[in-house]
Design a protein that fits this description.
Radius of gyration: 29 Å
Number of strands: 19
Helix content: 10-25%
Order of helices and strands: HEEEEEEEHHEHEEHHEEEEEEEEE
């Protein structure tokens, strides 16, 4: 026999760098991903006349003062005198009423730690500060608009209510769908949001004894705006789809958007019975919310307040030198080493209420409370 051959096994070694190896390269994107927000209702509805949902009163833009008093003259209701009857002694007294809007200032800012800190990151701190503050103020205005129009009196922090206290919906302007109070609404289909609810809101708007809600005039046509919560939109979509009306709702707003250039159509989800429908996360809602949405809590779980709004629904005033957007300021600290970016706005907004025939009522809003739980 020959000499035995010994076999040698050679082990192969792989060069490996683990996730936390000190030489492992970490790459950060140069563009920030921004948390989404629901934007843009407030500014699109602002105008300086009585055909605007948000009526901007310019009285304090060029002069001193902190309060504006919008005034209302009610329609004359007397019988008049026929033929040769004596008119003297049968005159009618003018009925006038006033509201009040108070100005205050709201500001916010972002400040960089310094140039060395900014050197360490691949994005512009200045640019992100501007974007972040723009989003912050846009949300704050929209939250304030919904809290005011929906009469969310649970929120006493006026930083979330356009610098003015909110007012509860007046009795003749508040519908409880399928119940007599928000606490009495239930999961019954009779308390859900539907096209019938919109029809009821329109009917109430037109037939209120003291103050019918005056619609917006868009190219000679009378329109209202209805704000609904996403959960209410889900209920509407399900019921309208079952009846074959959902496509009609969407087609109507598309046609309206082409015929009318008015911004009330921008972003609308549909139109029904003279109402341009907008969806808003900030419609006052039930309990159990968190973060910014907690500021729109009306304290009754699964109940949300849809709002029909007409002309002059919200009264707005701004301070001297301000427009409908906040002003911007930049400041350098510590010999130019640290940058601060701030925005501020002097303004006030309140849901319109006037007294006519000894009754104080919401002037241009109708609220419908429905039981609209999270469908997910």
């Amino acid at each position: 026999m020959g000499t035995p051959i010994s076999l040698r096994v050679i082990e192969m070694a792989d060069t490996s760098y683990g996730v936390n190896h000190p030489l492992a390269v970490k790459v950060w994107t140069r563009k920030m991903i921004h948390e989404p927000y629901r934007s843009g209702w407030f500014s699109k509805f602002v105008g300086d006349d009585s055909n605007s949902l948000i009526h901007l009163h310019p009285d304090l833009q060029k002069g001193p003062g902190d309060t504006v008093y919008p005034m209302l003259r009610a329609q004359l209701t007397g019988d008049g005198v026929q033929g040769e009857g004596t008119l003297e002694g049968s005159e009618e007294e003018l009925q006038t009423s006033r509201d009040s809007v108070v100005l205050d200032q709201l500001r916010h800012a972002v400040r960089s730690k310094g140039r060395v800190s900014e050197q360490r990151v691949p994005f512009s701190v200045r640019e992100e500060a501007y974007i972040g503050l723009t989003d912050w103020f846009t949300v704050r205005k929209d939250v304030g608009l919904m809290n005011q129009l929906g009469g969310n009196t649970n929120i006493t922090n006026t930083r979330y209510t356009l610098n003015n206290a909110t007012r509860a919906p007046s009795t003749n302007n508040h519908l409880f769908v399928g119940g007599t109070a928000e606490a009495s609404l239930s999961a019954s289909a009779s308390s859900a949001f539907s096209l019938t609810v919109i029809d009821r809101m329109v009917t109430r708007a037109k037939t209120k004894a003291n103050q019918p809600v005056r619609p917006l005039m868009i190219d000679g046509e009378e329109k209202y705006v209805v704000f609904i919560h996403p959960f209410q939109k889900h209920q509407l979509r399900v019921t309208a789809a079952a009846s074959g009306n959902w496509l009609d709702i969407q087609k109507a707003v598309l046609q309206g958007g082409k015929i009318n250039s008015n911004p009330i159509y921008t972003g609308a989800v549909g139109e029904w019975n003279q109402c341009v429908i907008h969806e808003s996360n900030y419609v006052p809602g039930g309990s159990g919310s968190s973060g910014i949405f907690a500021n729109t809590n009306i304290g009754v779980a699964s109940v949300y307040r849809a709002v029909l709004a007409g002309a002059d629904a919200l009264q707005l005033c701004v301070g001297n030198g301000y427009g409908t957007d906040p002003a911007w300021f930049e400041e350098l600290f510590d010999y130019g080493a640290k940058l601060g970016v701030a925005c501020g706005w002097i303004y006030g907004g309140v849901k319109a209420q006037f007294t006519v025939n000894a009754a104080t009522e919401d002037f241009a809003t109708v609220v419908a409370s429905t039981f609209s739980p999270d469908p997910s």
